[in-house]
Each structure stands twice: as C-alpha cells, then as structure tokens.
Amino acid sequence: MSPSRRWRRLRAAALVLRLLRSRRAATPTRRCASFRDAFPYESDACCAHMKRVLLRRIAAKPFHCRSDVDVKLLAELLRRSRFSAGLTSASTDALARALHFRVVHDGEAVFRQEDAIEDASGQFLVVLGSLLVFSKQEGAGDGPQSSRSGGSVERLDECIGTCNQGSICGEDAITGAIARTTTVLAQTTSLIAFVTKADYLRIARFNVEAEKNILRDVRHLFNASELHTSSVRLDTAVLNDRHAMGVIKQFLHRYECFRMLPQECFLHLAQKLQLNVFRPGERGNSIKSFGDRSKQEHSDILPLKLKYQDAQPSRQ
C-alpha cells in the first residue's frame, strides 16, 4: 500500500471518530435503570404506575404460568422487602414461583388472633395498600368495651401498628407458633402476596441459616396453657373441635418422631396424650429426671406422656 493511500485511510478514520464524539456530546447520556429500581413504590410516578400494572398482571396469572421475567421481578420484590431473609438466591426464586396473591377490601380480615396455624396459613407481604394490626388488650378494666345483643360485653382490640407497602405480617406462620398472636384487617383495598407455611418449609429446608433464624426465639411462642386447654377439650370427648385438634397437631408436628407418622394417626395420638402442669416450686414423680428444684423455679413444666402401646393405632 502506497503512503498516500494509507494517509487517506487514517484521515477518514479520524474524521469518523470526530463525528462520533461530537454526536455523543450533543446527545444526552442514556442511563439504563437497574433492576432494583423496578419496584412498585418508587419515587418516579411513571415507573411506579408501570410496575403496578405489571404486578397486577402477574397477580392475575396462575402461579404455574409465570415466566422467568415474572419470577425475577417477584424475587427482587421479596429481597427488597426482606421477605426471604436468610434464603439463597435459588430458594428466593423458588419462593417467587410459589407466591400467591390476594385482594382484600376495606375492613376485611386477613387473619384473626388465636386462629390455629395450619399448613395453609401464610406469611403476608403488602404489595399495594395498607393493613391494620390489632392485638387483644390485657387486663380486665382497661380500654373501651362494646356491648352485643343479649347483654354480653365484647373486648375491643387495640391497634398496635400499620403495615404499609413493603411491610410483612403473619411471621408467626413460619416460626413454629401454634396460633396467631395478632389480628390483621385491611385499611384500604389492598393487594397482598403470601406464601403458605408448607411451601416455605419445603423451600427453606436446605437453608441452615434460615432454620437458625426460625428456631432462635421460638420457645416463648409456645402457649402451654392453650395446649393444656385443648387437651382437656379432647379428654372430655369434644373431638369435633377443629381449633383444639389444630393445636395438638401443630404441637406434635414440631417433633420429628411424630412428623413422619401418617395423618390418620394424629387423632389416635391426641386421644392418648396425658398432660400435667407443674407450677414453680412443685415436684412430681414423673419429672425427677429433669433435675433438681433449683432448675425448675423459673417456669412451668409441661411434660408429655405417651406410652408406646397406646400409640399403636387400632387395627379393627
């Protein structure tokens, strides 16, 4: 190649670079929004409206018909709201695929206090709208009262908080509790997402850190008096009480030896349970192996008696 021809090519390349630089300087920089900005309650009104529409479309789909884009958007929604704290990225995606949606209207109850927690009970995330959290008041003479027909007096619940967009409620469904500790009502028409207890335990069973977080402060959630009341109901042949049976079933499900048994054995086991409550300072023959009295003065003891021969289901 001759030197003159090479020089012409270099001048043409320099001219093209100069034109590209001038065009880039005249055109404003295009910034690609990150995926974390794709959230339904951002400051940008246009982006928030688009994401609300997208979430409504996802909520209208059956959860087994969601695309990969839908799953990624829902997984990011769960990460931003700490709904999947302690879970891996793969488990969060699986949780997004199992996520259900529900629309609640003004005044509608999401769940009520003292409802038995079953496998279908869920942990909820407020996507759009707001919820009110109530708790039953303690004490006999505090707080307002409302009278019903017939002369009975009903205790009014106390509002202890509000769940706005991105807030979580119903965590007791996955922490091993046997009953709900609060009542949650819809303040406005709201869109909430939830995952059932069975799906969460199925997805999170291989996450050791998540199991540690769940088991860390679970002991205080165990209501011994409610379990004792349920056992008394069963002893008095009130076997059709679904709440009492739910309490006993959830209690037995906490132990691996009972969890592997078939479902038809739980009714038989519930009939054979013997529950005795020992108050602080008391000592019975059945709990001598638990230690001396100095270790038993701080809390009530609720031993569980179940003979092996009684645990065998009848073969009639």
Automatic annotation (TrEMBL):
Residues 290-300 have a biased composition (Basic and acidic residues). Residues 1-25 form the signal peptide. Keywords: Signal. InterPro entries: cNMP-bd_dom, cNMP-bd_dom_sf, RmlC-like_jellyroll. PROSITE patterns: CNMP_BINDING_3 (PS50042). Gene3D superfamilies: Jelly Rolls. Residues 124-203 form the Cyclic nucleotide-binding domain. Residues 286-316 are annotated as: Disordered. The keyword Repeat does not apply. The keyword Signal applies. This is Cyclic nucleotide-binding domain-containing protein. It comes from Phytophthora fragariae.
